Amino acid sequence: MLAFNQPLTAKQAAAKTGIPEDTSGYLMGKFAKNSLITCLNPEAGNSRLYWLTELGKKYQMELCSQLNLSYSEYELPNIDWQLYGLICFNHRSAVIKTLTEPMQPSKIKQILRIQRPNIKISANNIRDIIRFFLARKIVQPVKVKNKAHLRYELTDLGRILRQLLINSKAEIGQNSSNPIYKRGDN
C-alpha cells in the first residue's frame, strides 16, 4: 500500500517494493477485489494501472501513521491513463526517459547502448516508437539550424509522462518531486 505514490502497474509496484512480479499482480487483484485500489485503464490487456480508492487512501494514511511516516495526498494529473499504460512498455519507456533534449533516433540508440546495455532495441524500433509518439503528441519535431535531419523533443504531455515513469521507479520515501512519505521527526 505504501508503494502507491502515484498510479502504478503491477510490474512497477514489484520494482518499488522488491516483491516478485507475480506476487505483485496477485496482490493488486486482491486489493482491487477488496476495493482498496481501482484500475484506471480496465480495457488494457497489459500494463494495467492501479490507483487507490478512498478506502485505500484511508488505509494508506493509517499505515503511515503507524510507521511514523508523513503523508500528503497525491493529486492525479489530468492525463489519458490508457495512453500512459501504453507508454509503460519497456522500449517505449526507455525512449521517453532518454529524450532529455532534441535528439535523432540514432542518438537515442547511442545513449541507450551506454545507459542500458542489456536492452534489445534497434534503431528501427526507436523510429517506430518516435512515430507512435508523434501520432499521440508526446514528441514534436524540431528543426536544428545547419542540421539536415529533424530532431525530436518531448511536448508538455511527454514531459508529464516522462516524470510519471521516473517517479514510478523512485523508492518509497525517495520521490523528491512529490514527497508523499518521509520519516517523521521522531
Structural description of this entry:
The chain has 186 residues and is mainly α. It has 2 domains: 10-77 and 172-183, Arc Repressor Mutant, subunit A (Orthogonal Bundle), CATH 1.10.10; 84-160, Arc Repressor Mutant, subunit A (Orthogonal Bundle), CATH 1.10.10. Helix content is 47%, strand content 10%. It has helices at 10-17, 21-33, 54-66, 81-87, 90-98, 105-115, 123-135, 156-169, and strands at residues 37-39, 50-52, 69-70, 139-142, 151-154, 182-183. A two-stranded antiparallel ribbon has the order 1-2. Helix 1 packs across helix 2. The two termini are 22 Å apart. The model is unreliable at 174-186 (pLDDT under 50).
Percent of sequence in beta strands: 5-15%
Number of helices: 8
Q: SSE order, as H and E?
A: HHEEHEHHHHEEHE
Helix content: 40-55%
Give Rg in angstroms. 18 Å
Low-confidence stretches: 174-186
Number of domains: 2
Report the count of strand segments: 6
If classified by CATH, what would the architecture of the largest domain be? Orthogonal Bundle
Distance between the termini: 22 Å
Topology:
Blueprint: H1 10-17, H2 21-33, E1 37-39, E2 50-52, H3 54-66, E3 69-70, H4 81-87, H5 90-98, H6 105-115, H7 123-135, E4 139-142, E5 151-154, H8 156-169, E6 182-183
Antiparallel strand pairs: 1-2, 3-6, 4-5
Helix pairs in contact: 1-2, 6-7
Give a summary of the structure in a few sentences.
This protein is mainly alpha-helical and 186 residues long. Helices cover 47% and strands 10% of the residues.
